[in-house]
């Protein structure tokens, strides 16, 4: 009998690992690299804010304004990345590698094209775009200088998000981490060099970000060029069938809504804060960056859960899907509870790190920070539930959860509360939206688990034959 090709043997070994290794240990292995990637990304976002804040309050506000633009770029990249990644993990679980290659290639080249469109449109409408994103007249020059270089990197950023998510979806989280973390560390090192040593000001921070993104892109792409990934990317594998594009986009739509609404919510927050001056815009910008750092650990943990969920659902191991979800929910809640307590106690000191000489920024930011700490543990339930539905190809439930937090609840609050209670409305809109979102998720999750429990009950018993005629995977003991 002819032996299997080495690639097929490796793919089979990967499938076996994803569907038999204890879920706690497996999620830990996959989550640690993704958590590191997310933390490094958030650290270099905060590094931009920290170093730019030394240039003044208006420059600090500009970083918050341009963050809305970066969220738009991320929305495109994450839509294609999460959409393709969710499909890839389930296809690999079903042992359909050729189709997984087509999905990855199609998403990658589509991301490059859409990123180029963002670059062209953004550069042609720079000043009006910055005003639309919430820049005051004093913040506008800084925002334009920062945004120009971010727009140049839009195609690379979009494509990097696709490769990053696709590598994680096939269980290669370490490869993903190396690409993202290397760029992040480089960004942190280059920020002070370009801003202060080369005296390039806020443009230096943007150039540092652009260069680091290029390095990340090259490292991520090398995994596909040198065949360290399971799936392959090639222009010849781009699908000419239009039915594949809706499949990727619909599955990734929750990420689009999550990122797009995050951008729109950030714009709305900047506009609402603008009524109270540059200190309010700067304070909310700092709070947003710090909380992005805190939540990045939760997001990284959830991204370690997603390939486990997708592989096992595709392989019919519904018991492991449930076990993985409950494991992540418990660990995530306990972790965020500890972080929220620490953040509540240290809020003024955290704000002082960024704008020590501006007591108004510290006062506004410290209260906003503490209010958001009160709702922080709820994100374990919101994030893991959202990622559960997206990894299983259930876009309606995932999209609702994505839309609810920043769209259905935050936007009405940020447009109404400031007019009723002033700057306090700007500070408390997000935590209230988080609380209502968590409550809205409860019936959706309960209904899904009622259906999942029925699927678990119908699974082949230990030792029974699977539909393909092979022995069914053995139900696992508690991890």
Task: Tell me what the structure shows.
The chain has 16 helices and no strands. By secondary structure, the chain is mainly α. Helix 11 (278-314) runs parallel beside helix 13 (359-375). The chain is globular and about 65 Å long. It starts with 5 loop residues before the first helix and ends in a 22-residue tail after the last helix.
Keywords, please?
479 residues; mainly alpha; disordered C terminus; 0% strand
Task: Summarize the SSE layout with pairings.
Elements: H1 6-20, H2 23-53, H3 57-93, H4 97-124, H5 126-132, H6 140-152, H7 154-169, H8 173-197, H9 201-225, H10 244-274, H11 278-314, H12 318-355, H13 359-375, H14 379-391, H15 395-421, H16 423-457
Membrane topology: Multi-pass membrane protein
Main location: membrane
Subcellular location: Cell membrane
Regions with little confidence, pLDDT below 50 for 5+ residues: 463-479
| Total tally of structural domains | 1
Which term fits the overall shape? Answer: globular
Question: What pattern of helices and strands is seen along the backbone?
Answer: HHHHHHHHHHHHHHHH
Short description:
This protein is mainly α and 479 residues long.
